[in-house]
Write a structure and sequence with these properties.
alpha+beta; Chitinase A, domain 3; 2 helices
C-alpha cells in the first residue's frame, strides 16, 4: 500500500475517532446509539433536531428543526452505505438538500437536476469534517454550526451566523 494512502486512511480514522468522542448535547446521555440516530418505525432518522426520510434514491424530506441549534457538528447516518468510503482528499458525487435552521426552509437542493461533483477539500469545514468515513450508497445528516459553515459573513441565500442542515446522499467517490 502506498504511504500516501496509509496517511489518508489513518487521518480518516483519527477524524472519525475524534468526532465520535464529541457530544452534541453538552455531555448528556443520548437517546440512541451514536451515529445511528433514533430510528422510527417508518425507517426515518429521528433525533432531537429533525426527522429525515430514509428512502434511497429519492429526495429526502426533512422536518423543520426544533429546539436550540447545536454548537458542534452533528453527523448521523440515515442510510449506511456499503460502497467506497470517502476520505479527506476525495472528489465526491452527491445529491444534497440544504435547509436553513432559522427558517426551516430548503435553501438549495441538487435533486432538481444533476448530482453535484466537487473535491471535499474545496467545501465548507462542516462537510470536510462530517463526510469522511461515509460510504457510497449512504445518506448522512449534517447539522453544521455557523463557525463550520459560512460564519458571520453568510453567503448567497445563507444568512449570517446560520446553522445549516444538510442531507447528503453519496453517489460516487473518486
Amino acid at each position: 500500500m502506498k504511504p500516501s494512502r496509509i496517511i489518508v486512511i489513518l487521518s480518516s480514522l483519527t477524524l472519525l475517532i475524534s468526532l465520535s468522542a464529541c457530544t452534541t448535547d453538552g455531555g448528556a446521555p443520548s437517546d440512541g446509539p451514536k451515529g445511528q440516530g433514533n430510528q422510527s418505525t417508518g425507517g426515518n432518522l429521528s433525533n432531537k433536531y429533525v426527522e429525515v426520510s430514509a428512502e434511497a434514491g429519492v429526495a429526502p424530506t426533512i422536518s423543520s428543526p426544533s429546539g436550540t441549534p447545536p454548537t458542534t457538528l452533528v453527523t448521523e447516518d440515515v442510510i449506511v452505505g456499503s460502497g467506497k468510503v470517502a476520505g479527506a482528499d476525495s472528489t465526491l458525487t452527491v445529491h444534497y438538500t440544504l435547509m436553513a435552521w432559522s427558517t426551516g426552509e430548503i435553501v438549495e437542493s441538487s435533486w432538481s437536476g444533476e448530482p453535484a461533483q466537487f473535491p471535499l477539500s474545496g467545501v465548507i469545514l462542516g462537510w470536510q469534517q462530517g463526510i469522511p468515513g461515509m460510504a457510497v450508497g449512504g445518506r448522512r445528516l449534517l447539522v453544521i454550526p455557523p463557525d463550520l459553515g459560512y460564519g458571520a459573513a453568510g453567503g448567497g441565500p445563507i444568512a449570517p451566523n446560520e446553522t445549516l442542515i444538510f442531507v447528503v446522499d453519496l453517489i460516487d467517490v473518486a
